[in-house]
Amino acid sequence: MKKIVNLALLSFVISSAGRADDLTRNAQTELKTQGFYYGEIDGALSTETSASIKRFQIRNGLDVTGTLTEKTLESLGLSKVETPRTPPVTQVTPPPIVQEERRPRVEDDRRFLQREEGLPPRPEAPRIAPPRPEPSSGYEEVFARTPFASAPPEIQRSTVKRAQSLLSKQGLFRERVDGMPSPALEEALLTYQRHTRLPLTGRLDLDTLSIMRLLPGRGGPPLQPFNEGGEQQRPPQKVYRGVWVR
Q1: CB neighbours of 246 closer than 8 A, spacing ≥ 6?
Q2: If you classify domain 2-76 with CATH, what class do you get?
Q3: Sign of CA dihedral 135, 149, 212, 233
Q4: Alpha carbons 194 and 208: distance in angstroms, whole number
Q5: In terms of CB atoms within 10 Å, which of 24, 119, 141, 225 comes out highest?
Q6: pLDDT tens, residue by residue, 192-242
Q7: What Cα–Cα distance (Å) separates residue 243 from each residue in 47, 129, 235, 236?
Q8: Mean pLDDT of 36-42
């Protein structure tokens, strides 16, 4: 009797864990659709998943817990996964099977003529594999609806490096300055936008680019790419009558 109770308890725990995984997986899907989550849809409440939940809670004025609370699920349009009820089994009498007369197809006629008249087989068309989609680098989301959304990759990376460097000097960005979009950059931008009273987007939008002086032709520095060491490339100096000039 004790063994039966233990098996039933183990089955209940496994089913509860499965429902929790489905709930987390649905939340990851919705967070990724809204641009808060960049990881894999695996149903695991990882550190990256918790960080994306925090960003969603900050954006929607909820309690920042990093967990899927009831209010967070309501804002995401989700509800806790319930165990589906098994409908009662009703016996239905299957209809009688009527065998239809098989009609010869055009392909069968062609094969018959090839076999009887010795015609060569019809060559098959080559199969062309569909092109594989290239992975998104994340710059389209960071620079959405800005001139940098369609800029060359080296300009996009250079601009992100400048933003990371500025945020790092203010103590908001603590990762490596590499010019790549990441959840850490989004969190730093959210904090910066909150301090400067800008709309909380977590992206390098037009208002954020303007106040950070990263827009070309608006008082910001010219768009010069960074070298491999993370430093901005400067134009070479010239010598005029023994004096160094820029």
Answers
A1: 235, 237, 238
A2: mainly alpha
A3: positive
A4: 11
A5: 24
A6: 999 999 999 999 999 999 999 998 865 544 444 444 444 444 444 444 444
A7: 56, 63, 16, 14
A8: 87
Q: How remote is the C-alpha of 151 from its chain's centroid?
A: 21
- Where does the pLDDT of residue 128 fall: very low under 50, low under 70, confident under 90, or very high at 90 and above? confident
Range list of β-strands (E), the chain: 238-240, 243-245
Phi, psi of 235 (to 5 degrees): -65, 150
The rounded distance, in Å, linking the Cα atoms of 146 and 125 is: 45
**CA-wise closest residue to 26 among 104, 70, 79:** 79
Q: Which amino acid is at 141?
A: E
Question: H or E element: which one contains 238?
Answer: strand 238-240
CATH 1.10.101 domain locations along the chain: 2-76
Give the residue, 94 or 201, on which the prediction is more confident: 201
CA gap 24, 67 in Å, rounded: 10
